[in-house]
Write a structure and sequence with these properties.
The protein is an alpha/beta fold and 531 residues long. Among the domains are: 59-139 and 179-213 and 233-263 and 330-461, TIM Barrel, CATH 3.20.20.60; 472-518, no CATH class. The protein has helices spanning 3-16, 27-35, 42-62, 76-90, 102-108, 125-158, 161-172, 192-205, 233-249, 281-286, 331-343, 359-370, 388-402, 424-434, 436-443, 454-470, 476-490, 497-500, 503-514, and strands at residues 68-72, 96-100, 181-184, 209-213, 229-230, 256-261, 268-269, 291-293, 307-309, 312-316, 324-325, 349-352, 378-381, 446-451. The strands form three sheets. An eight-stranded parallel sheet has the order 12-6-4-3-2-1-14-13. Strands 5-7-11 form a three-stranded mixed sheet, with no helix packed on it. It has a three-stranded antiparallel sheet with strand order 8-10-9, with no helix packed on it. Helix 4 (76-90) links the parallel strand 1 and strand 2. The two termini are 37 Å apart.
């Protein structure tokens, strides 16, 4: 028996037990409302989606072609439309997630106005966006089921049992729009207690997966900006523990933690950890510091710090701002140590912030990590901060040159130019770009591909196109031709914006509550009927 049928029976029993006082309650309407509100709390969502994500991770371990993807969304409506589109075009939401970008929260959701990605926005904005995203995803469920319920009633009215059964099967096997969200907690917005408190709010809002980075929280920078400062491993592991305790306290025992390292592009540290014995984590972290030898007291200035490394006294190089500097060309080794340490101390997935999308570069680091942790896998940022066109054209140029192919017709530094768009090199670069996710999943251990802030850019681009025409010679045709006509011909449900906002659901609820006396909005005079 389906859950829908069970809910009808349960409502019937409840109504019967009330000695006639509940006779106005229709048990099937109760079942419909329950189906439209499957997830009662954010914790219900977190537990449900954590299981999905764990299953996806296991399937990827068995077959790297089964990688997962997401797009960053900065508003509940954007996330809703994304998942509606995924279901419509691909038939399933399987392996498709949402990403909550701290960058977009800072730039678009802060009460201070647009901010850079430096953890200056209100920390409460993050769980609020998670809750908003799931509110809109649940509404997408309610709307789609509402349409099925109406179709079911119409089939029954016609006496078409075959059609009614087919529709009932769709209801019984309905796939929710609710999918995992990978949520960015930045560097934790403070100490480990602050991290724990914010993680709890995020999980209570529905997050099954929290991504945390190893930067200093009060000096946090976007991963694609300069000036990044990392923390010692001990500090980062304390925050990983804080997130795990938050999951366990709330009963999300299989919650997922993504440990992000910015060490590839971070050359500074704020703190030198205390080493208790040679070769411990603090000792390894300090071994990457830029130091100068100390031969005598004359080499030490007032207030300088002195370390003993490999039996010799050395002085870490300290900048005027008090930060300490790592040696150049140690980023690779620091990334590997960061990742191995995180996985060995409670993290589930890795995030390595790189400066370019290069499968070989990522694979080299993952191969080194997998020597210590064989099932290590990544969440990877397919970042809009990369110039994808130029990067892949240059990668093809370099590969062809190494193969001895004639590349004299190309200027490597100007390959972004439109004059190269129709060339063989550009076509090959586009193929590399198209296959990047598949190739990186197979060769570089990437389990999840995401684009952090794509909908920031799509909103800007589509608005620019509309504004150019509407406020110019095209006038209203700019909207009609460029937006509404496209919505109609491409079958976008949002063209019926009243229905998308819930007017039909509301009408049906009014009928549940008031019967024939219900005042509905969806009558013959509703202009939505034009579509």
């Amino acid at each position: 028996m389906s859950q829908y049928s069970k809910d009808i029976e349960a409502a019937q029993a409840l109504r019967k037990a009330q000695n006639g006082t509940w006779d106005a309650i229709n048990p099937e309407y109760v079942a419909r409302m329950r189906a439209q509100n499957r997830f009662k709390t954010g914790l219900d969502i977190a537990r449900y989606t954590a299981k999905i994500m764990r299953q996806d991770m296991a399937e990827y371990d068995a077959d790297s072609s089964r990688y997962t993807q997401s797009l960053g969304c900065w508003h509940g409506f954007v996330g809703q439309q994304k998942m509606i589109a995924v279901k419509r075009h691909h038939g399933t939401t399987s392996k498709r997630y949402l990403y909550l970008s701290g960058w977009m929260v800072a730039a678009l959701r802060s009460k201070f106005g647009p901010l850079p990605d430096q953890s200056m926005h209100e920390k409460t904005s993050v769980p609020e966006l998670i809750e908003e995203l799931y509110t809109f995803l649940k509404q997408a469920d309610a709307r789609e089921l509402n349409h099925l319920f109406r179709e079911l009633d119409a089939a029954r009215d016609k006496g078409d049992e075959a059609a009614a059964k087919a529709i009932q099967d769709k209801i019984d096997n309905f796939q929710t729009h609710v999918v995992p969200i990978i949520a960015d907690i930045d560097a934790g917005f403070g100490n480990e207690e602050a991290t724990y408190l914010l993680a709890k709010k995020m999980i209570e809002a529905g997050a099954c997966c929290i991504q945390i980075e190893n930067q200093v929280s009060d000096a946090k920078q976007c991963g694609h900006q300069d000036g990044k400062v990392t923390v010692p491993h001990e500090d980062f592991l304390a925050k990983i523990n804080a997130v795990r305790y938050a999951f366990l306290e709330l009963g999300v025992d299989d919650g997922v933690i993504v440990a992000r390292t910015d060490s590839l592009g971070a050359g500074l540290t704020q703190k030198i950890p205390v080493s208790n014995e040679p070769g411990d984590l603090a000792s390894k972290y300090n071994s990457f510091l830029e130091v100068t030898p100390v031969e005598s007291a004359d080499d030490v200035a007032e207030g300088d710090m002195v370390l003993k490394q490999d039996g010799k006294l050395v002085k870490p190089v300290r900048l005027p701002n008090g930060l300490y500097q790592f040696r150049k060309d140690t980023g690779f080794d620091r990334v590997v140590l960061d990742c191995v340490t995180s996985l060995q101390n409670g993290a589930d997935l890795l995030w390595i912030e790189t400066e370019k999308p290069h499968v070989g570069q990522i694979a080299e680091m993952v191969d080194a990590i997998r020597k210590e942790v064989p099932n290590a896998k990544l969440v990877y940022n397919n970042s809009p901060s990369f110039n994808w066109t130029l990067n892949f054209r240059q990668q093809v140029f370099d590969a062809w040159k190494a193969e001895g192919k004639d590349v004299s017709q190309y200027d490597r530094e100007k390959l972004m130019s439109a004059e190269y768009d129709s060339t063989e090199l550009a076509a090959e670069a586009d193929r590399w770009t198209q296959n990047f996710q598949k190739d990186a999943a197979a060769k570089a251990g990437i389990f999840h591909h995401l684009i952090t802030l794509p909908t920031y850019h799509t909103a800007a681009l589509s608005t620019d196109d509309l504004a150019k025409g509407y406020f110019g010679d095209l006038g209203m045709l700019a909207y009609v031709e460029g937006v509404q006509r496209q919505e109609i011909r491409k079958g976008l449900a949002c063209v019926k914006h009243q229905d998308m906002a819930g007017s039909n659901i509301g009408d049906d609820h009014k009928e549940y509550f008031s019967g024939e006396a219900a005042l509905k909005a969806g009558g013959s005079l509703n202009t939505m009927n034009q579509f």
